[in-house]
Amino acid sequence: MTWLMGLIVALACLSSSGVLSVRSQHLTMVGATSALPYLRRAVAGWEAEHPGYTVSVSGGGSVAGLIEVSRGRADIGVSDVRPNQVLTGKVDLQSLALGRLPILFIAHLAVGVRNLSRAQLQRLLMGQSTNWKAVGGTHTPVIVMTRPLASGSLEIVQHEVLRGGRVTPRAIVALSNGAMLAAVQETPGALGFVESGNIPAKVAVLAVDGQVFHPHNAGQWPFYAVPRLYWRPQASASVKSLALYLATREYRPQYGIFDRVS
Amino acid sequence: MVLHLVALVLTGVAAALFALIIVSLVRQGLPSLTWRFLVGSPNERAGDNGIAPELMNTAFLIGVTWLVTAPLGLLVAIFLREYGFRRRSAVVRPLNHLRATLLSAPTVVVALVVYRVAVGWWHWPVSLATGCLTLAVINWPFMVTVAEQALASVPQSYREASLGLGATRFATAVRVVIPAALSPLIEGWGLAVARLAGESAALVITAGVNVSRHFSLWGPGETLAVHIWYIRTEGVSVNRDAEAAATGVILLLLIAAVVWSSARVARMLSGGEPR
Amino acid sequence: MSMVRDRAPTRITAAATATFAVVGLGLIAALLLGAWPLIGEPRPLANLLGGLWDPLRGAYGLAPFFVGTVVVTATAMALTLPFSLAVAVVLSRPLPDGVRLGATRVLTVLTAVPSVIFGWWGLLAVVPWVRARFGGAGFSLLAAGLVLAIMVTPTLSLLFYQALRSVPRAFRDGSAALGATPDQTLVRMELPCALPLLIQAVLIAVARAVGETMAVQMVIGGQTVLPTGLTSPGATLTTQILTDMSIFPPGTRGHAVLDVMALVLMVGMYLLVRLAERWVAMP
Q: What angle, 0 to 180 degrees and rounded to 10, lies between the N-to-C axes of helices B240-269 and B224-234?
């Protein structure tokens, strides 16, 4: 019994005092996975200029990014959803935008449609049109693909395209952009959306209201997420240096992150 | 004989199915399986991706976790098995239920709790160390199970003889029972390594999804399984499917090598008799 | 006395065991603590048992996930049982030692294949097959059941094999000497003799199937309304934890329901453990 008590006391001490705290040279970033390919490269670049520092990037999603950074469990949060009181409490986070990450609407190659009006897109995503014939395509049932609730791109689609409406609950949920792309490629009748800076292969990238996406005019494409880096006001100089470095690399467009006009 | 024929046919179908899975994985991964791939670093845009840091992280995470949990599991098993508690006693039974329940706990759940304690309370960074802690919690119940089953395979008469000669219970366990149980222990330990190597969901949260230029216990620790997850999730490399498959092949080879060799060693120790 | 010399090592083993208990109970306590805020919600029980999942608006109906978990697990078990039993029967017949040894080692390696690999194969082969055969999206409870069935087959085969091997050789010889054919011996003598162990094996496999996350998530479709049939998409408790844990990290209001789901899983596992124990204690 004494053993048990001793252990509990020891655990309590550890939990309260933070004896094991090791944060100074090891930074943690948590957040949106859509910027991961870029962050993996850029973080390595910053580490090369700052010997002795290591930076871990953890998955978790946009919402987790905001929550973890505001509670001090991460040094930088990456998020493309807007912070609000519920997520961040009273912490007044500082932030820098990485740029614009275009959100493309994609469909299976055989649906016979390449251009949709915003209203058509809305009806399809909300499950009101259930066959591609209704929008001038082939006779194929529509299979809507969506992303989890935590996804920043879902929030933007519901806000910008559905005007506050919601994607049909009958939609298939793909966990990530990669899973979404693979699912739409292989499922006849599929309609989905991905965050991507180039034109993905083996799917139909839909034009919306006649506007066609191309990497050269990515700055004008109306649907985009803005992944931002967030940190606490009292963060150390190295955290700020890392954030500034990440937000200013000129090779961001290679990873689909564009400036406003390009 | 009809039933036996049916059994043979069904076995054939199952074997063919597994062969199909493995062959299609290897076929997709083979083009990317080059020496450069094994010794290079991740570099998606340049097109010459490598997985050397991931290999190292996998080995490190599993190695440390193994070194911590193998003795801990053995100690718990010795306490439960070798101190003469009856099987249904008030000490052993609840602990066995706990062990068996934890054994099937979803690893994501374990990871969330560890994250809250290590990252939230202790202010550890997301890192190899946190990943090790998570894997240790996931693996401990398994190690206890392995050790318990191994100790159970030793005939009671061995213990009686040793105790009769005046040895203490602990000495009996260490000098008599464990050497006699070494063969199943080693086999189980090999399986534990394989189980750990495949873990991805828990490590995405606790060990991170990138690798650092500077190797550190407190730095990020992407493993092979997590790398497969990453490539399939957001990877932007041109031949990402082939790279995921190639990483899968390497992971599978590692697992097969560990399981196979531990089974061989176990068989050598048991004097060649089939267990 | 030997007890005196034994004191230090006894303490060490006892301390290790106590730590183990603390870690395990701590894990469960953390889940309980996390699930606690849900008590404060209006009508928590009716809410949890309902069929509507809209966690951002406080609707935490878990019924679709219970149904998903049960259906997927049952499908997987129904599909794997004949195959696993067949493999075990074949292995337990007189075979050359080398063949038997090789086969069991291959099975052991297969039990450890990472679930992402099965999920990947499910996307490549199972989902398109379901789509071609039954229409719809292909992502479905059936696809998840098929992938799971394949995943648990090596584990279940090995456990069945151990169960059949526990039947003493003399019984089998005796049966043969009485003129029973191998089929008769198998059905009338070996399977009944091994029944408790066979059932325990099934329960272990069920536990593994219920707990599987990654592979199932990749092929099940993640739809959060009550599934209408075997070929409609759905979600299980584990896949839904994985999908929604990023919108409800620890400390948010909705996280409580994820902890409830985890607790339900743990209670389910505990019941399976007790059930398995009962079956083995019986003979």
A: 160
CATH 1.10.3720.10 fits B33-269, yes or no: yes
**What's the total number of domains in chain A?**
2
CA A262 to chain C, closest CA, distance in angstroms equals: 33
Q: CB contact, 8 Å: B101 with chain A?
A: no
Q: Cα distance from B213 to chain A (closest Cα, Å)? A: 6
A88 is in which domain, residue-wise? 22-100+226-255
Closest residue in chain B to residue C121, using alpha carbons only: B21
Residues A143 and A83 in one domain: no
Instruction: Calculate ∠ Cα C176-C180-C185, nearest 5°.
Output: 80
Assess C86–B contact: CB distance below 8 Å, yes or no: yes
The alpha carbon of residue C193 is apart from the nearest alpha carbon of chain A, in Å, by: 43
Mean pLDDT of B172-185: 91
Q: What is the pLDDT of residues C161-218, one digit of tens each?
A: 999 998 888 998 899 899 888 889 898 889 999 998 899 899 989 988 998 888 898 8
Distances (CA, A) of B177 to B69, B82, B93, B150, B154: 19, 9, 22, 9, 7
Looking at the partner chain, which of B6, B113, B259 has a beta carbon nearest the beta carbon of C30?
Answer: B113
List the single residue in A with minimal CA-CA distance to B218. A26
ipTM of the shown complex: 0.87
CATH number at residue A231: 3.40.190.10
Residue A135 tokens read as: 């929008």
pLDDT digit string (tens) for C223-273?
A: 888 888 899 999 999 999 888 887 787 777 788 888 899 999 999 999 998
> For residue A17, what pLDDT band results from cuts at 50, 70 and 90?
very low
CB B275 within 8 A of CB B184: yes
CB contact under 8 A, B208 and A51: no
Q: Which residues of A touch C223 (CB under 8 A)?
A: 169-173
What does each C-alpha distance from A34 to A60, A120, A125 come to in angstroms?
A: 11, 27, 21
Question: Is B47 within 8 Å of chain A by CB?
Answer: no
